[in-house]
Amino acid sequence: MSAMIDTSFTLIDGKKISTDIKAEISLKVVERKNQGKKIPHLAIILVGDDGASQTYVDHKVKACKEVGFHYTMMRFADTIAEDKLMKHIDQVNKDQDVDGFIVQLPLPAHITVERITEKIRSDKDVDGFTNHNFGSIISKNPLLMPATPFGVMELLRRYNIETEGKNCVIVGASRLVGAPLSMMLVEQGRATVTICHKYTEDLAAWTRQADILVVAVGKPGLIKGDMVKEGAVVIDVGTTRVEGPQYKNGYSLKGDVEFKEVAPKTSFITPVPGGVGPMTIASLLMNTLKACENLNP
Ligand code: NAP
To answer: Is 210 touching ligand 1 by the criterion CB < 6 Å?
Structure first.
């Protein structure tokens, strides 16, 4: 007799969790207002006119409005000189009314990204990009957490998914997602963590061992059904715009996981869109509130 396979899984609803977080933050903003305290203020720097970046920034502005934060949008042409951009960052660093700010990536090719992100004051770095905030993940007092991995940790926490002692495999080792998440899962999650990347041999042999599999690569369909263990938790960070006339807006957002094949094998899985994506903005808001509380107790 063949073994029964449980095909029921829980869809991790990042949209709902981010709505819950926004409601919690709104309450805290009202509380601060009632106590005569400063309202959090997020500044956003956007360079150039890349369509995807504009969409991300629009979502961030909308989220600020929803929770009652003040916000400032600063736009610059994609021809701006690196030193001129550095001067603007310096101004925002010194502006006492701004609690947190972000420089939307990617930046034009003539600008050195790390020089720009490192220029941001770490206590206002609400994307958690600076080396200082990155390193603080392994300290006793983590500062502003890198937004996307922070969002992943928050999803696991709010769905009561146990990480302690679990075998976590992360596919993708970027500075933005995979690397900081691996440190958070070890430090805060007490998990056993493996990181896979482009040079990993026999990727499936690693992914099949995962109790919790996080994929952050940017290659739609990379993870197939036979690469996942029965009952695993699967978090798909990948977000790739795939264009085609069949899609309503001319494109569709695709994750790295072959959802239809993989989902029935899992216990929990995130969809794309609607999984990790909304959590990145929720993390940005949580970090901005935290920066404001730290700078203006
Ligand atoms: P990235 O900087 O390009 O990093 C991709 C990582 O994947 C690298 O570590 C790379 O390895 C690895 N990789 C490439 N091909 C691979 C393969 N065939 N097998 C295993 N690993 C492979 O990208 P990222 O910024 O981390 O973003 C990853 C994905 O997440 C993208 O789709 C991005 O759009 C998405 N993302 C989503 C959110 C969100 O809010 N939902 C936020 C951030 C990113 P090497 O290190 O060896 O090159």
So the answer is: no
**How many angstroms is it from 76 CA to the middle of ligand 1?**
27
Residues 282, 97: Cα–Cα separation, whole Å: 21
Tell me, in angstroms, the distance from the centre of ligand 1 to residue 277's CA. 14
Residue 274 CA to ligand 1 center (angstroms) comes to 18
Q: Which tokens sit at 76? A: 């610059």
| Res. 1 pLDDT band, cuts 50 70 90 | very low
* Residue 296 near residue 37 (C-beta atoms within 8 A): yes
Both tokens of 178, joined, read: 């995979």
Atom of ligand 1 nearest to the CA of 177: 26
Closest atom of ligand 1 to 275 CA is: 41
Model pLDDT for residues 170-208, shown as the tens digit of each residue: 999 999 999 999 999 999 999 999 999 999 999 999 999
| pLDDT tens figures, 113-150 | 999 999 999 999 999 999 999 999 998 888 999 999 99
Lookup result for tokens 């006339």 = 245
Selection from 181, 158, 184, 154 nearest residue 170 by Cα = 181
Tokens 């960070």 identify what position? 237
Mutate to test the pocket of ligand 1, among 56, 177, 227 (most ligand atoms within 8 A of CB): 177
Q: What span, in angstroms and rounded, lies between the C-alpha atoms of 94 and 170?
A: 38
- How many CA atoms lie less than 13 Å away from 132 in the CB half-sphere? 12
Instruction: State the Cα–Cα distance between residues 216 and 218, nearest whole angstrom.
Output: 6
Q: How many CB atoms lie within 10 A of CB 247?
A: 12
- Cβ of 113 below 6 Å from ligand 1: no
Task: Please tell me the distance between residue 176's alpha carbon and the centre of ligand 1 in angstroms.
Answer: 9
100-103, strands of its sheet edge to edge = 70-76, 41-47, 100-103
Residues 279-290 pLDDT 10s: 999 999 999 999
